[in-house]
Amino acid sequence: MQVSRRHFIIVAASLASASVLQTESRAASAEVSENDPTAQTLGYKADAATVDTTRYPKYQAGQACANCQLYQGKPGDTSGPCPLFAGKLVSAKGWCSAYVKKA
Questions:
Q1: Is 56 exposed, middle or buried (0-12, 13-18, 19+ CB in 10 A)?
Q2: Residues 6 or more apart in contact with residue 74 via CB below 8 angstroms
Q3: Where are the domains of the chain?
Q4: In this predicted model, what pLDDT tens digit does every residue of 16-42 receive, in sequence order?
Q5: CATH number given to 31-103
Q6: What are 81's strand-pairing partners?
Q7: What phi and psi, each to the nearest 5 degrees, are found at residue 31?
Q8: What is the pTM (predicted TM-score) of this model?
C-alpha cells in the first residue's frame, strides 16, 4: 500500500495534536493539594468548613469555590479549574483567601 506524502503529513499532524490535547487534559485533571505551595500561601482548603477563621477572618459561612468568580467549573461539578492554581482542579466545596463572590 502506497501512502502519499500529503496523507502522511495530515495523519502525523492529527496524531501529534491528539497527543498534546490528551496530555493537557490529564494535567488539568490533577486536584490541587492543600500542601501545594500556592495552596498554602492562599490558605486553600478542600472543604470550606475546615477554614481557620482566626487566621482568615475574611472567610464567611457559605463562601466556597463553586460561588467564586475565579472558579471555572460548571454548576453541579464536584471540582473545576481555577486560574490561580495553574490548571489544577479545586474542590467546589473548597475555599481560599482569594475568594471573590460571583456577581
A1: middle
A2: 80
A3: 1-30, 31-103
A4: 655 554 444 444 569 999 999 999 999
A5: 4.10.490.10
A6: 89
A7: -75, 140
A8: 0.71
